[in-house]
Amino acid sequence: MKLIVGLGNPGDQYAATRHNLGFMVIDKLAADLGREVKTRDCNALILRAELEGERVVLAKPQTFMNLSGQSVGGLITKLGIGKTQDVIVISDDLALPLGKIRIRPRGSAGGHNGLKSIIEILRTDEFVRVRLGIMPEHPIGDTANFVLASFPKSEIASVKEMVNLGCEAVRSVIADGVEKAMSKYN
User: Fold this and answer.
1) What does the pLDDT look like over 109-134, one tens digit per residue?
2) Domain assignment of residue 146, given as a range
3) How many other β-carbons are positioned within 10 Å of the β-carbon of residue 175?
4) What is the rounded distance in angstroms from the CA atom of residue 104 to the CA atom of residue 112?
5) Please, which residues bridge with residue 47 across strands?
6) Of the residues 39, 46, 168, 185, which has the maximum number of CB atoms within 10 A of its CB?
7) How sure is the predictor about 139, in pLDDT bands with cuts at 50, 70 and 90?
8) Per-residue pLDDT at 152 exceeds 80
């Protein structure tokens, strides 16, 4: 079984923000299956499903971003996931240009509080990341306000395309493995 976690903040006020790209990918994966992520478990909304012939749990932690590790750690324990390499975390990334995707089998938090929380709770950085770029062409100012702001209309088409690519990338990681997915999407 694989745990696929989209990072974001709970609440309608955050639904369309840059920081919630992980939630957007999870919701799209579920919608593609004709389902919703709505069962409450371990401080998350989850959906048990099958993707690319594998049993998966799609999860959206309902803690705020900087406490995501609590939910992820609880889910790993409850689901009996034996190795963290069976965890795929989808997050926004300010270091990547808008629309770019980067897959990694491990790595640092890179300043992302959700990833930092997961690394702290799991005591390892050995989990797959699908990072979605949010850096615009122009300078941003205050980072916290930027990531918690909604995408402007001029970026909506790029965001939809990136969410679709994010779904494809997750499916590729499951079906083909991390290395092949990296060569295809990075």
Assistant:
1) 998 999 999 999 999 999 999 999 99
2) 2-185
3) 13
4) 15
5) 58
6) 46
7) low
8) yes
> Tokens for 29?
């994966």
- Domain total in the chain: 1
Element (H, E) at 150: none
CB 129, CB 153: distance < 8 Å: no
Domain with residue 34: its CATH number is 3.40.50.1470
Contacts of 180 (CB under 8 A, 6+ apart): 172
Burial pattern 154-168, b for ≥16 Cβ within 10 A else e, equals ebeebbeebbebbbe
Q: Which residue numbers are catalytic?
A: 19
pLDDT in tens, 42-80: 999 999 999 999 999 999 999 999 999 999 999 999 999
The type of residue at 124 is T
Q: How far, in Å, are 3, 25, 36, 164 from residue 59 at the CA level?
A: 7, 11, 11, 17
